[in-house]
Amino acid sequence: MNKLREGGIDTAAATAAAPQSLAAGRALPQAGTGTLGKAISVLDIVASAEEPMRFTDILAISDQPRGTLHRQLSNLVEEGLLSINRDHSYSLGLRLLKFAAKAWAGNQFRTIAEPHLKTLHEHTGETVHLGVLRGTEVIYLDKVESRQAVRMYSQIGNASPVFCTGVGKAALSVLPDDTLHKVVASINFRRFTDHTLVTPEQLMADIEAIRASGNSYDREEHELGIRCVAAPLYSKDLSFVAGVSVTGPAYRVSMEMLESWAEMVRKTALEIMDDMRTRLGPRT
Amino acid sequence: MNKLREGGIDTAAATAAAPQSLAAGRALPQAGTGTLGKAISVLDIVASAEEPMRFTDILAISDQPRGTLHRQLSNLVEEGLLSINRDHSYSLGLRLLKFAAKAWAGNQFRTIAEPHLKTLHEHTGETVHLGVLRGTEVIYLDKVESRQAVRMYSQIGNASPVFCTGVGKAALSVLPDDTLHKVVASINFRRFTDHTLVTPEQLMADIEAIRASGNSYDREEHELGIRCVAAPLYSKDLSFVAGVSVTGPAYRVSMEMLESWAEMVRKTALEIMDDMRTRLGPRT
DNA sequence: ATATCGAGTTCCACTATTTGGAACACAATT
DNA sequence: AATTGTGTTCCAAATAGTGGAACTCGATAT
Q1: Closest A-chain CA to B88
Q2: Which residues of chain A have pLDDT under 50?
Q3: How many angstroms separate the CA of A92 from the C1' of D19?
Q4: Nucleotide of closest approach to B34 (CA, C1')
Q5: Architecture label for domain B8-95
Q6: What are the sequence ranges of the domains in chain A?
Q7: How far is the C-alpha of A57 from the C-alpha of A45, rounded, in Å?
Q8: Mapping DSSP to helix (H, G, I), strand (E, B) and coil, where does residue B131 land?
Q9: ∠ CA B155-B118-B104 to the nearest 5 degrees?
Q10: Per-residue pLDDT reduced to its tens digit, A3-56
């Protein structure tokens, strides 16, 4: 099997099937590619826990035998991907920070999108997000807001569920049906607010509407008092699928206002895509 | 060998000997622990390149055979740790962002230090940094400054050389001699400015001064026009060694001002250590 | 003191995965 | 059409990972 050539729709499908740790829910340990996959799967277990986990806790979730798990943890620690606390609990290692800083700074997509996000922010005055689809999660790549009081890491890199975020639903809307069905089938629906869409049917209906209009909305589905409009963004071959959104507090931003921004958000998405095509080669 | 029990000085030693990618300089590929180590080593090669590298470029640096390297890259891509661009070049994957966001948010040390950093910033009005020692690099964990205009990721997670940063030299000063010599021996000295210390002798002399006073200074050694005072910070068993610093532009911050802040910086470091001892158990 | 229990660690014969040389595709160049 | 450079695939041999069971250590109970 050719693994590197998983371009196009296959990538999206593979991504959807990739090991996932539901942002809110139980982590489903799922072995990945060989030895590395198993190690990363252990890392993921530690990452998706709220509190640092101890050996036995991890043992219970990963279905690895004691000896094996112990060695995997040792290796992870030795590589700096995990660190072990005095009380034998594990936390993610600092080496990850270094990698992530490079990953972020070097991300071509983000670099290209950045000025467009700023423009969109200037026109709307509200917070602008850029997030990419990864399995059943959206990973936020960038954020532009006026008051930079909130710390960057509190948002960037964060993973949120696809089914209840504007960016997530926008991204889903551009997937071809077969891929979409696979992704939707693997979503772990969870109610966050009274407005959360909690069944595949509700989500699919919304996605149809998004496909028709080109915009998705988060109607306080993830967090009470928070609304957004978003538009999808993708490479021609769907090797990546993302979304831009304008988010604001419900008391200040009415649905009508969001609707009035919808076209601008779509336009921003198109402009970013144009820029990518011209700067990363015409076949993008 | 017991890998998990590498507490105390051994950890520092192990860290010093760990695979490293010099922040500025050539990456020295160095195989790590088994299969995982090799994979991470490949990741590191990609991470320490300025531009995305293509297969052959990586092949030249990693001394792995073609077939092997190809599979390693495939696995890394499949795990989302690496992503492959259209032109067959590799960049770091977005999954790393998710891991790092958790690593940062969950870092106990950082959480405890944060309020102290803020206080220090309020007293001095200049930028405060918190960085930890990792091999011959310092990884910045946090940053407090007035104008949050600069984006977070541009600094946090960044790795800088130990030998020409205040935080780095402060951290080195608390290592026991044998460990210190090992670390210094593996430093790749490189001149950044006219003031950079470029020989082990110069560095060791400075470290003696730091040991005597309890403060290190960066006298425009890393970047022209930038100065700082720092103080070391460490756990009793040296399982981690770090530093706090106050940094400012030379035109505004004279050496005299830095000296007047020196005691306050030391005090901040002590307070953070106290806090850690009380909150993470007395043996810390 | 001594026994008991739980948590973490180590050991080593067995086995599955990784290895790496060489052959194979594919594209761009000559 | 031939050549060169790059990336990809294959498979027997070698290596590294596996996992059950035994062991150590510390805390709690007797």
Answers
A1: A4
A2: 1-29, 148-152
A3: 26
A4: D16
A5: Orthogonal Bundle (1.10)
A6: 8-98, 107-279
A7: 10
A8: strand
A9: 45
A10: 443 333 333 333 333 333 322 333 344 556 789 999 999 999 999 888 889 999
